[in-house]
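Researcher: Here's a chain I'd like modeled. Treat it as a single chain, no partners, no ligands.
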Amino acid sequence: MSTSVWPPIAPDQLVKEEAASQARELEWLLQSLQETLASLKEGLEECIALLAPREPGSTLVMSTMRSDALKGFVTRVGTRIVRGDMQVRLNSLPPTRGLPAYKLSLSTSDPSNTLAMDQLVEVRNLINQSLDIVDVSTWTGDAKDANFISGQLRLLFDNIQEASQALKGDDSANDWAENPMDPNLFDPPLPHILSFHLSIREAALQLHLRTLEPIEEASTSLSGFDFRSRLAVAIGASKTPTHDEANETFIYRGQEVRVREKLRVESQDPSLMSVMAKLAALEHTAALARKALNIVMDKDD
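Model: Modeled as a single isolated chain. Structure tokens:
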């Protein structure tokens, strides 16, 4: 099936009419994209509000489901963890004197010295940058310049996509060893044999606790344990490490260590889950806007 113009017009006149029609369509699309940008700004502002530091914050349970290895909670306010209190029961971690478990508490003596979540800081910065891009596209730049708006939409899409990826997290397996936690964030300070690593994974707080053993101490026996540990294994009171890092060594605070015990706990954060869902929707909207403009401009992505 074909479409023809009646009465027939000259080929050069047809080209002009097609160009004029495309120009009108582009003008209409650029106007409608201003409404899209306003909608994107509203969604981004909702994400910023969910990440804002508002008391009392979000208190999340950090406990193992099938054992008493870890029981406790942390409180997130904005991009920082301001409170935390946990009881840790691991065979290789001596309990706090007078208690049946090791008491792991974030220090509250200095309110300015709290645990910052770098991933959330990155998400907040990327969303703020996205809001700046929307403002420039709406008020500062030429909203009728298709090439300018196309470039702004690409920047906006990339920023939203990066923010979404930061909330999903990645598999930075050795990040705990390369960027150890400041021991003085805890009261009492974190012992040198314990690694505390808190990160964001799929909008949930993910905590890894590891008890460590320096290699020079482990080398005192072929099995990697001291006499007490070997005796416990022999009588069945303890088991050899079975976690995924049992046969690896790491450089932790300038010292080569191996992981004796490893514990992982996740806690879903409703506010972060809402941010991730909103970012996914905003990313989709920005992608559709880019695609529509590229089609009208006859431009490859």
